[in-house]
Amino acid sequence: MNILILGGGGREHSLAWAAMQNPKCDKLIVAPGNAGIAEIADCADLDIENGAAVTAFCEANAIEFVIIGPEAPLAAGIADRLRDAGLLVFGPDAGAARLEASKAFTKEICDAVGAPTARYARFTDADAARAHVRQTGAPIVVKADGLAAGKGVIVAETEAQALAAIDDMFGGEFGTAGAEVVIEEFMEGEEASFFVLVDGENVLPIGTAQDHKRAGEGDTGPNTGGMGAYSPAPVMTDAVAERALEQIIRPTVAELARRGTPYRGVLYAGLMISDGQPRLVEYNVRFGDPEAQVLMMRLGAQALDLMQAAAAGKLAEARVNWADDHAMTVVMAARGYPGPYEKGSVIGGLDGLPEDGNRICFHAGTGRRDGRFVANGGRVLNLTARGATLAEARDRAYAMVDRIDWPDGFCRRDIGWRALEAKTAYNSDG
Ligand code: AMP
Ligand code: GLY
Question: Which residue, 58, 74, 174, 252, has most beta carbons within 10 Å?
Fold first, then answer.
C-alpha cells in the first residue's frame, strides 16, 4: 500500500514510524515532514491545505491511503476533497471536524445528547459577555469559538482576567476565531485524554494519555503545545473509560451520523475527572501531539491496520492487541519556547542514540545543515520510551535526553510526576 501522511511534527514522525513497522506499507511519503522523518520516509513539499494540490499529488504518486495529522487541513475540508476523488482517508470531513473547529458546535452536540460537560453560555456581543461574567463571578473559562492554535482558552482566576480575555477576543486577537466566545463554568478535577477510532458508526478505544501543557516543572509557567506525555493515564480506570464511552463519546458519534456528517478518524476527548465521573472539556479531531508519540510506541505496527479499518468503515471487526506496558515521551524544546526562540542551533548526540522497540527519538522540528541536525521549531525532539512500568519508561526516556548534546534546548525533568507519585492512589497499573 502506498501511503501519504500530511503534517511535519513529532506526531507525524510517530505515525510514519508505526506505518513503516507494518509490512503492508510499500511506499511512504510525508508532506512536509522534517529531517527526522526523512530518515525513514520520503518527504514532499506540498501545500497540505490546498485540496486540488493534495489530490493531484496523490494521483501522480499512486497514493492509496492518506493519513491526515493536524487539524488545519481537516477543518479546511481536505478529507472531503480526497474522499470525493475516491481515496481512502483517515480523518474527518470538515462537517465533523467542527467538533474541534467550533467550541460552540461541540457544546450544542453535548446539549443534544445530554453529555456531561461544563455549563456554558455563548456570545457574539462583548457587553453581554461582560455582563455574564459579572453575574457569574470567577473562576471562569473564556474560549474563542474557533481554531486558535491552542491559545484561545483563558482559564480566568479573577473577574478582571475574564473581562480582559473578552476584550482581547472581541478585539480581534484571534481573528475570526474570536468572533464568537464561549464562557464556561470552571471544572475541578484531574484531566486525561481518551483516544478512540471511529468509522462513522463504530467506536474503538485505542488508549489513554496525560500530557503536561505547562513549560515549567511542577506544571507551572506558560501554556505550551505539550512538554511531555505518558500512557496509560492512571486516572482513566476501566470504569471511567466506560462512562466516557457511554455518556459522551458514543452519543456524540451517533448524533453526528444522524445529522448526516458521520465521524471518521481518531476522536480525542479531553476529559475532566472528578470522583470517578468524566466530563468533556473539549474534542480534538486528530491525535494529540505529543500524545500520539506514546500511543504509537505502545501500538506499533497494528496502528496502521486500525487506522485503515477506521477509514474503510470496518472497525466492527477490528481488535486492539494490548500489551501491559507504559510509555513516556519527553519533549526537548528550543530555549525561550513558548515565547520567542532562535532556529538553527546544532543538535549533537542524535546519531548514537539507541533505537529499538522500546526507545526512539521522534523529531518534532528539525532540519539539516551541512550534514548536521539543527533545530527548526519550538518543540524539536520527543525522546520516547516504553517499559513494563512507567518508572522504567521514564528512566529510558531520560537516559536518551542525557545523551543529547544541545546547549540551546531544554526539557522538563518531571514528566509523569503525578502518576509516579500517586501510583498507589489508583488501583490500575495497566
Ligand atoms: P484547550 O486549549 O481547549 O485544550 O484548553 C486548554 C486547557 O484549559 C484544558 O486542557 C484545561 O486544562 C483548561 N480548561 C478548558 N476548559 C476548562 C473548564 N471548563 N474548566 C477547567 N479547565 C478548563
Ligand atoms: N497536546 C495537546 C494537543 O495535541 O492538543
Answer: 74
